[in-house]
Design brief:
Number of helices: 17
Order of helices and strands: HHHHHEEHEHHEHEHEHHEHEHEHEHEH
Bound molecules: iron/sulfur cluster
Strand content: 5-15%
Length: 373
């Protein structure tokens, strides 16, 4: 289990080690053929800031070599804003007085038809953590309803047991995103005040259960703004390293959500600048050439326009973060405010204007189809 690896590392020591990296460490990391986790620390450290241009060029080259000039598009499909947990950074938190909504089967289909018309083949189903309303049976039904519409169905929902994941994989589930939010075990409690999500260890072990359940892809990440983003990304990298060794047939993606304004939300404790976020994304690419790097509409138009050439492989477009937000009930309360609100067609055009191709399916299928042509 990853817990055993995790427990060998102390947060404060990791922090000191990252902030103690020098330009010599950064240059060694840049010149290394096979980069280690120590190299990753150097690349995300403040000492690497003056090397950003070089890192960006290297990241661009590696990404293009591995993924071609392509950007994969997906849309989140919020199924429910019901949640039994209290997390003080989230608009869906139980103590937040808002109208709760869970899509019916008919409404799921209405949303699916809207997204299909936009061209999407890859949807990410999102719910709060409300076991009675959006438990495994609800998710199974949603996957069954959506399978005729989409090539790839992923979920970002409450962590489940291994058998439950197996049941969803059997229904055709492709990927699961499960963000640890922060690997700072002590401070994790400050953000997750009530409910199942307050169980740090159960969440930390979720990717192990997913690997055992035979899921195709696992998405990891932290919520940038809670704790030091450098240390948090070191632990994410450690987690990916562990998973790649134990579940080598599974694919992995990383996201970089920044804390965004939402009703009743705490202010970010730590702010990452746009430059630092570019550094982080490039560091990930230099550390792991295979991993998918995803940037959502939480980020601004300007940032997203630039990042597609610097290492990102996957972006969402035209997103709504409220259940029924596309076609059923566009006015319901969103989970967080999005920044890039361009229609899908505009995002696609932006990608093409940069000489890239917008890909609607997941990489694996896209590669298989390309190979078959
Ligand atoms: S982060 Fe997830 S579990 Fe926490 S309040 Fe929001 S929807 Fe619920």
């Amino acid at each position: 289990m990853f817990t055993e690896v995790f427990e060998k590392h102390d947060w404060d020591e990791v922090l000191m080690s990252i902030y103690g990296k020098t330009s010599t460490d950064v240059e060694r990391a840049l010149n290394s053929r096979k980069r280690t986790i120590e190299d990753f620390k150097a690349l995300i450290s403040p000492a690497a800031a003056p090397y950003l241009e070089q890192m960006a060029q290297m990241s661009h080259k590696i990404t293009q070599k591995r993924f071609g000039k392509t950007i994969q598009l997906y849309a989140p499909l919020y199924l429910s804003n019901e949640c039994q947990n209290i997390c003080n950074y989230c608009g869906f938190s139980y103590d937040n007085k808002l109208k709760r909504k869970t899509l019916t089967g008919m409404e799921i289909i209405q949303e699916a038809e809207y997204l299909k018309q936009q061209g999407f083949e890859h949807v990410l189903l999102v719910t709060g953590e409300a076991n009675k309303t959006v438990g495994v049976d609800y998710l199974k039904n949603a996957i069954r309803l959506l399978k005729p519409y989409f090539a790839n169905i992923s979920i970002e929902v409450q962590p489940l047991d291994e058998d439950e994941y197996k049941a969803l994989v059997a229904e055709g589930l492709y990927a699961v995103l499960v963000y640890q939010e922060t690997y700072h075990k002590e401070n994790y409690k400050l953000y997750h005040l009530k409910g199942k999500k307050s169980n740090f260890d159960y969440r930390l072990d979720t990717p192990d259960r997913l690997g055992n359940a035979g899921i195709h892809k696992i998405g990891l990440g932290v919520l940038i703004g809670l704790e030091d983003w450098r240390a948090d990304n070191f632990f994410t990298a450690l987690h990916v390293n562990y998973l790649e060794k134990h579940f080598w047939q599974t694919r992995y993606s990383i996201s970089f959500p920044r804390l965004r304004p939402a009703t009743g939300l705490i202010e970010p404790k730590v702010v990452i600048s746009d430059k630092e976020l570019v550094q982080l994304i490039c560091a990930w690419r230099l550390f792991n050439e295979e991993i998918e790097l995803s940037v959502s509409t939480r980020e601004s138009e300007l940032f997203r326009n630039h990042i597609i050439k610097l290492g990102a492989t996957t972006i969402s477009a035209g997103s709504k973060t409220n259940p029924g937000g596309y076609a059923v009930e566009p006015e319901s309360l969103e989970q967080f405010e999005i920044d890039d609100s361009r229609p899908v067609a505009d995002v696609k055009k932006m990608i093409e204007d940069r000489g890239y191709k917008a890909v609607w399916k997941d990489w694996e299928q896209f590669t298989v189809e390309k190979a078959a042509v």
